[in-house]
Amino acid sequence: MTLIDLKKMTVMLLIIFLGLFSLSLLAHGVDDSTKEFLSNNKGPAIVPFLYFGAKHMVTGYDHLLFLVGVIFFLYRTKDILIYVSFFTLGHSLTLLYGVLNDVQLNAYIIDAIIGFSIVYKGFDNLGGFQRLFKIQSSTFKNQTAVLIFGLFHGFGLATKLQELKLGEDGLITNLIAFNIGVEIGQFIALALILLLISFWRRSKSYLKFSAITNTLLMSGGFIFIGFQVTGYFVASV
Fold it and tell me: Do residues 168 and 41 touch, judged by C-beta distance below 8 A?
């Protein structure tokens, strides 16, 4: 691969990651029409909550960037399913628990931790823990980390729903529908990501550019943390 090809690939990766991160800032919120419907809704509304859950995950690039980091070096379908299942279990538990028990957490802090989860996976993929801290990686440690961060991602989803002040009538049904929608959106997004990665893995550039990719992943996480920390202090003024 020539130096020109290297520069082109670097620029392309940078554009992709910055584009995803920019979209996360613009699209991950709740639009006014959806917010108005959910706030005024009374009783079970399975289809709308399914749609909202799926849409929220597909546009939730903070969640998706974390998953990209999780599956980046997973080659077997079985391993991908196991890790994604741990993530799903984590965010499903805290999503339901957080809303049903009205657990009040600061959204900026939770989102900053979600940003840190992206940094963590990028750093882990680069072998940072082993090189700097002499901490040996293992399947158990990696799966546990995914589960724990999944819990925080679930609280992130819960804080978004709590802001809407959902009615008590049909709340459990709507929450389950929303959660199923999240899983549908996650499946769709993950399928597309795996399709792209599978094509990229056929090229020798995949491993050559793994360091750049995960460095960009960490950079996106740090930027996300910066926005959330800034938002926290601005909101406190």
Answer: no
Q: Over the stretch 103-129, which tens digit does the pLDDT of each residue have?
A: 989 999 999 999 999 999 999 999 999
pLDDT tier for residue 80 given thresholds of 50, 70 and 90: very high
Beta-sheet strands, E only, within the chain? none
Nearest C-alpha neighbor of 156 from the set 115, 110, 116: 110
Instruction: Give the CA dihedral 3, 65, 78, 195, nearest 10 degrees.
Output: -60
Q: Find where tokens 């990028």 sit.
A: 122
**Max CA separation in the chain (angstroms):** 63
| Closest by CA position to 174, among listed 160, 187, 161, 189 | 161
Residues 70, 121: contact at Cβ < 8 Å? Answer: yes
Three-state secondary structure call for residue 205: helix
